[in-house]
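Lay summary. Proteins are chains of building blocks that fold into shapes, and those shapes determine what they do. In this project we predict the shape from the chain. Here is one chain we studied, written as its sequence of building blocks.
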Amino acid sequence: MKKAMALLTALLLICSVSLAEDAVSSATLSVDRLPVVESTGSSILVVFFSTDDTVRAAAYTIAEALSANLFEIRPAEPYTADDVNYHNSQSRTSIEQNDPQARPAIAALPENLSRYDTIILGYPIWWGQAPRILYTFMESVDLSGKTIIPFCTSGSSGVGSSASNLQKLTAESAVWLDAKRISNGSSAEEIRAWAESLGLAKEEPVMFYIHVNDAVLPVKAENNTSSEALLQLLEAGDITISMHDYGSFEKVGPLGTSIPRNDEDITTTPGDVILYQGNQLTIYYDENRWDFTRLGHIDIEQVELKAILGSGDVTVILSANP
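And here is the predicted shape, written in a compact code that computers can read:
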């Protein structure tokens, strides 16, 4: 069962650990500290690019307000103060912004965007447009069917055509909402108010639980008919599964019955709970690529998950209750 390994060193964690409270520096917003943002089972991801703390402070504030996850677009070659010198026509950003084909390299892309329904996209305005690295990002990920909400910061420029130009790089099925300009001096309260005005409800995720080796692993259920069928089975009682290692990336065992499949070509991540062939349950502690159905996801560090599952055979109990 089967999906391609991605290099762990190429990953940026989407806030898989708590982010300590940090002071905000070199920002034009009235935000004193970055709020603590923890990884959640949210279907909302705040993606942002920032060479100072301005967009970063706004992104963290929005993520905290919506209990969303965060991903920072980091350039493979970081921008220096000289690179963003607007007064130098030969600075790196001047050259990039004047070249419609410029696509600065990104250090790493987010993993498993399929779990997100809504992308809130933040960037500064450079020469009236989004930085070219945003173009790199949009051309490197699949945002089909997602709702995208752009926001930008600037000294005086408006949103202009920055968002509509980015929209041209996404599939027609992506739904773009109006872009928001966050002006200089905006407070955390004002930014939170805008985020909350979007009407993105903080819904409690539907959960089921895996009991294994004295640990209880909460699983955020996927929104499909397969997970619905599994949850119905669990309402009738717990399911015990004897699992074995396969391919050094998963534990697998018979579910004991068949449930509807929603197979698609996906790359698993550690913590994915997968339905294989309609009657096998797998818990991934590493990565693999194949056609199968995601039932849910355990929000846990890979090292911790592997330690809990242990080596060799293991018996797990699926339950509707912790």
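What the prediction tells us: The helical segments are 53-66, 92-97, 132-140, 162-167, 188-197, 225-236, 302-309.
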